[in-house]
Amino acid sequence: MESKWIALSNTSIAIFIAFANYNMIIIALPEIFNSLKFNPTSPDALGYLIWLILGYMVVTSSLVVTFGRISDLKGRAKLYSIGFLVFAISSGLISAITGYGNTAVLEMIILRLFQGVGGGLLMVNSAAVLTDYFPKNELGKALGLNQVAGLVGGVAGLIIGGVLSVIDWRYIFLLDFVVGLVGTVWSIKSLRDIQKPVKQTLDVIGNVLFAVGITLLLISVTYGLLPYGSQQLGWGSPYVISGIILSLVILGAFIAVERKVKNPMFDLSLFKIRDFSVANFSNFIASMARQGILLMMLVLLQGIWLPLHGIPYSQTPFWAGLYLIPNMLGFAALGPVSGILSDKYGSKVLTTLGLFVSALGFFLLSLLPYDFQLWQFFAISFIMGAGMGLFSSPNMADIMASVPIQKRGAASGMRASLQNSASALSVALYFSVVITGMSYTLNSSIDKALASYGVHLSLNLPAAVAIFSALLGYDPLAGIASSLPASIASHIDTPTFFVSAIAPSFMSGFRLMLNISAVLLVVSGILSLARKGVRVGEMGNSVERAQKAEKAPTDGS
After folding, report:
1. Which residue windows are transmembrane per the record (predicted)?
2. The pTM is what?
């Protein structure tokens, strides 16, 4: 097999398992909590839950730029193989957790952070390795196929996680372990560093400032989702406020250092390249618009539509994964096609069209009632996926092809850091919008529904608890029903009762988010028109140049 296709196959497996792993855990959380005897309804459970979901993303966001720079200095293929190994080892250790309760979940969170280190190394180097191996006029196709592998992995993770968690949730991490080991051995044997490592010093001060600043920012934003005192959210907490302010001060100091240091880790001069800057900012806005919505679509399916149609909470995660397949198919159908077309005709029209198509999909979804027709949801989610497929691969190809070869690792790290930070912020901010909207009407709606059966209680169910209960497949009203007469409990202890109470308030916030996302995507689409987006006819790649250099006569021969 030609070396470039070996590189594509190996990196696609890495991206597949990295994305699958993230969603397998979300689906398996109920079984994991049950096995580890962890109570997800306890007062401190939300903190553990948020870190299990977002911790991996926080680590990759804070470290991928550093990893990209180190890869330029030490070798991309080498660091890529190390990433596979770290991912495999951490996965094996997670599968071996034997404790119970908070201690066991804390162990899992810590190991997930180490898994994020491996995932970050894979993420930042896979695109750089492909850019080294493929000529520019085939780069869009290669990155498109690679991204499709990631999206397929994300949806497949929902299905695989649903199946394996029924048997034993540890099999999920054993699968990661086996794939990680195979990927490690294969990458060591088949991939080599095309570009000689750059002989420069590492910007230690800049790396530390960025890692501390972005980590503190994301941690502060994450804890903004937790209740504070009598408030539904923690944005008023002095710790959250001071954390955000301090993180911005540190990031400001980081920018000042990067402007003066000789060999910066975050090479701000790259933003003088039009395609690099436009493609990165477009991707940042698109990630802000998309990631939070995808998680909320899971909440809509798992917490509202599926229970409303008689699916038990224990099965809703699995079926929610299946119902998101049309979104994956839209991306899979248009991603490679868009990459190939951008290689031939340029990327500007495709990226802009893709963002506009996604915006249309988001707007159409906002028009659906919570008890929608399934075919309507499938068609709209396909449109959303197709639009992102049109946008993603040409956009990434523009980022990677626009920078000098010796800075591809750093460029890929900058891209991944901006994208992951936007995704984490998107999840936190969109959850905040929905929780804030629900907090005004949730308890009054539940009290009114209970009163219709002669039950008069004054509940104080936090909106965050309702959201995460729906996501995990728990009914937080089950405890109330168990204390009532059987004739009344039979009506209350049903998915339909809880859904009817939370659906209207959830949908008001959900629609607001969809409209905000649609506007962001239109803005990103307009911004995308500013790029050059021309890679047509630019023949040759790093492999070919390296081979020619090896065969060329040396001076004095």
Report:
1. 12-33, 45-67, 79-97, 109-130, 142-163, 169-188, 208-226, 238-257, 278-306, 318-337, 349-368, 374-391, 422-441, 512-530
2. 0.76
361 shares a domain with 224: no
User: Is 276 part of a structural domain of the chain?
Assistant: yes
The answer to whether 400 and 195 have CB atoms below 8 angstroms apart is no
Q: How many other C-beta atoms can be found within 10 angstroms of the C-beta atom of residue 99?
A: 13
Whether the CB-CB separation of 348 and 511 falls below 8 Å is answered with no
For residue 496, the model assigns a pLDDT of: 74
* 238: exposed, middle or buried (Cβ count in 10 Å: 0-12, 13-18, 19+): exposed
At residue 31's C-alpha, the angle toward residues 30 and 33, to 5°, is 65
Distance CA 233, CA 229 (A): 9
**Encoding tokens for residue 299?**
């909440």
The pLDDT tens digits for 339-384 are 778 777 777 888 889 999 999 999 999 999 989 999 999 999 999 9
**Residue 128: both structure tokens together:** 């750089």
Q: Are the C-beta atoms of 20 and 156 separated by less than 8 Å?
A: yes
Q: Within a domain: residue 167?
A: yes
Number of H helices, E strands in the chain: 21, 0
Is 543 within a domain? no
CATH number at residue 309: 1.20.1250.20
Identify whether the C-beta of residue 309 lies closer than 8 Å to the C-beta of residue 468: no
Query: Is there a single domain that holds both residue 109 and residue 217?
Result: no
- Close Cβ partners of 245 (under 8 Å, ≥ 6 residues apart): none
Angle subtended at Cα 177 by Cα 174 and Cα 183, rounded to the nearest 5 degrees? 145
Give tens-digit pLDDT for 147-174: 778 777 777 787 788 778 778 889 999 9
Number of domains in the chain: 2
Residue 548 has pLDDT above 50, yes or no: no
Alpha-carbon gap, residue 432 to 440, rounded angstroms: 13
Q: Are residues 189 and 307 in the same domain?
A: yes
- CA of 421: how far to CAs of 60, 229, 283, 286, 525, in Å? 9, 28, 11, 12, 20
Token representation of residue 464: 């965050």
pLDDT digits (tens, 9 = 90+) for 447-492: 777 777 777 776 777 777 777 777 776 767 666 666 666 667 666 7
> What sign does the dihedral 42-48-52-57 (CA atoms) show?
positive
What pLDDT does residue 544 have?
A: 46
Q: Which domain holds residue 161?
A: 3-202+263-440+503-534
Site of tokens 């090896």? 550
From the number of C-beta atoms within 10 Å of its C-beta (0-12, 13-18, 19+), residue 201 rates as exposed
221 domain-assigned: yes
CA distance 469 to 102: 18
